[in-house]
Amino acid sequence: MSTLAEVEILAAANEEVLTREALDLVARLHRELNPRRRELLERRHERQAELDGGALPRFLPETKDVRDADWRVAEAPADLRDRRCEITGPVDRKMMINALNSGARVFMADYEDACSPRWENIVEGQRNVTDAVRREISLETPDKTYRLNEEIATLLIRPRGWHLPERHALVDEEPVSASLFDFGLHMARNAREQLERGSGPYFYLPKLESHLEARLWADAFALAEEELSLPSGTIRCTVLIETILAAFEMEEILYELRDWGCALNAGRWDYIFSAIKKFRARDWVLPDRAQVTMTVPFMRAYTELLVRSCHGRGAHAIGGMAAFIPSRKDAEANEIALAKVREDKERESGDGFDGSWVAHPDLVPACTEVFDGVLGARPNQLERLREEVVPEEAALLSIPDTPGEITDAGVRTNVSVGVRYLDSWLHGVGAAAIDNLMEDAEARSP
After folding, report:
1. What domains lie within the chain, and their CATH numbers?
2. Closest residue by Cα to residue 204 from 249, 245, 278, 154
């Protein structure tokens, strides 16, 4: 145990990473914002009790003026205008180099679902990110030397969600928010360097359940910019709409973060899990996971509304994850899976999305090719306003209309994948290839 600046560290304290400037920022963020974070987490419990009691989410009448008003988010910087293919992965050194070199336009370095939150993973991840920002990241193995190419993806960071604490770091004897810990360390260590290199501090924000939680992030951004003497609006962000409650507040979330050029992402797997969790008291049982595709009614309504909400406000709409992991041993299975990936990306690009996610470098060419076919030389398709899409509460809640069946094989698969993933996570690996799919934690609040 040691005290660095005003933060007490209950683990090995790497002072190269945990600098005074970084920890001072973390401490200030915590003291000014954590009381409201706790209030918002309590509100999550209250909303769950309301849902358990029979209430259903709806478009908020108190924010109708925001939905009706004429406003737009800040324009994206040059290196975030073309996002036709994005790749994601943990802050592991080798995976970061491969992702940055993958040919994707954007790489989201993940402290959240794809990162088992061991202290050493978080601290080493901060060091890896800092090295990547300075283009100093490399890795020597007995088989290969890993170094960055001349052209690399634009770097975005996903901190952990509001519900998670960092129990190894205390301020005033209280665990620091993991979100503020990840965000504060990155800002203090890398923001100026990123700006000097023609980019900036860009973030993916996970697990939001309301526009009030987005407002808390807006206050964190403003405070960090002030503390570090950065111009207002330096930070840029993308919010994952991966909870069904957030789907009813997409425009409000964009509005709260408009000064930071907010975009939205369709976080499909977590969104399905959110529907299961939030409506646990209802007899809304989904079929086998493989049958809950993006074309079932409630998922279709959510993704189309996301594009409309974004493009009407000048914001990018980013599609969901292609989780397939290619096999070097089964070319026939690869071709079948790649055909499904292309079909998925064709649907997204046809619906107006500006780009999409993949989990493996070998999927980058397929995703890029599909979006190239729609975008051509254009960086995005923000002009596709999708005004024909009508926001409907009933459509977002059409979960019982999901076709399919529950099978013994599907239940066995769920149990098998769950046990194998838990074993991986406990061994410190947060992104695990299981049955040729990338599985991650989909961490949730209790």
Report:
1. 2-406 (3.20.20.360)
2. 154
